[in-house]
Design goal:
Elements: H1 4-19, H2 24-45, H3 50-66
Helix pairs in contact: 2-3
């Protein structure tokens, strides 16, 4: 037997699944990825060796191009 709170939770969960609304946890993951990408970019920009910097920037750009965020199942 479901309590009223459990029933409310089921309805909210169902609506979220229908609207494909990201959860707070999903948004936190995205925020952490963004923060890490910014940190890496600053690290690359501060490199002194131009050859290493160019290679790191190429890898960074390729990572950004190839990042794929798929639908949550």
């Amino acid at each position: 037997m479901l309590t009223k709170d459990m029933k409310d939770f089921q309805e909210i969960y169902y609506l979220r699944a229908q609207w494909k609304v990201p959860s707070l946890n999903d948004l936190e993951v995205i925020r952490r990825i963004k923060r890490e990408l910014i940190r890496k970019r600053r690290e690359i920009d501060s490199m002194k060796d131009e050859k290493s910097k160019k290679k790191a920037m190429k890898v960074y750009a390729e990572l950004l191009i190839n990042m794929e965020i798929g639908e949550a199942s």
